[in-house]
Amino acid sequence: GRGGERDVPLRAAGFLATATSGFESKGGRDLTRLLQEHLEKVEAAGKGEAEGERKVEVEGEGEGKAEGEAAGGAGGVSAALAAELAELREGKGEGAQRFRYQRISNGVLWVPMPSEGGAGDAGAGDGEGAEGEKQEGVSAAAVGESLVAALEASRSSVSRFLLRFFPISTTCYASKDEIIKAAAPLVAEALPEGDGEGVPYAVVFEARSNGAVRKQRMDIIDELAKSVPARHKVNLDNPDVAIVCQVIKGTALLGVCRRFKAREKYNLQSLGTPPDLLEEQRELQRKEHKEHLAAKAAALASANETGAAAEGDSGANEAEGDKGADDAKAEEPKKEDD
């Protein structure tokens, strides 16, 4: 299903991904599987931390009592987490089938963060409710960070069909003013004020099916850059933080991607390839590109030579034709006067 009048609703959090054209359904299934796996990991880690904090509080009440409760509590927490994860995998737990993908356009997928209303509901942006109030829970940014961090560590393929991947913290109406306003808290958190060394960053902007916003591309990028504290510097070649703005029809999707360059610009195909093999592939691509350019230049030079030769032959033929005409004229018998 699609989100109301727009393919992606306003003030929603989720994930934007591109997939090989014609294989969106397979890419979508891969994506929801990965997101479910990492949502469970983030939730389990959060519960483990909460239980750890609770354990410390209990220990403060009495040494003897704390030791007994800690021994029993640790095992109980581990068993409870294991049982809950087993239920999730079997489709019985509250997190079963919590993600659903939507095909937005050719090769473009959207997966909303699940809300309390049910699986795949298009919820509010990270940390916001319907009217902007704070909500507790796992954010799209945290799930996305878990996914790409695991892939960066393993460098093993997770899908043959998924290409780019962007965790989206919030969405807004696709206009310059609304984009700058909605991006402000994301920029403030990722690139804060301060006196220390800044962070190299870039703005990653793309617009699909919205010609008006595409024409404002540079204005929007400039305004976003102006909102960043001066100690952070733009570095398009090697950014550590990317402020992402993806416009799809009437909606702008905003998020922050960390370690952007190190994580292959969040290209899951590249990130899921061992570095040495990836470099070999890139070297082969560079070689093929160079050979293609050389062949193109040779073909152009050959065409120019052929054209020049044809012009020369044409000129020679014209000259011979003129000479023949002159000779014929000279051989014409002169008319005798009457």
From TrEMBL:
SMART domains: THUMP. Residues 43-68, 285-294, 320-338 have a biased composition (Basic and acidic residues). InterPro entries: THUMP_dom, THUMPD1-like. Pfam families: THUMP. It comes from the Eukaryota. GO terms for molecular function: RNA binding. It comes from Prasinoderma singulare. Residues 145-258 form the THUMP domain. Gene3D superfamilies: THUMP superfamily. One of its GO terms (biological process) is tRNA modification. Keywords: RNA-binding. This is THUMP domain-containing protein. Residues 43-73, 115-137, 285-338 are annotated as: Disordered. Transmembrane segments: none annotated. The keyword RNA-binding applies. Residues 117-127 have a biased composition (Gly residues). The keyword Amino-acid biosynthesis does not apply.
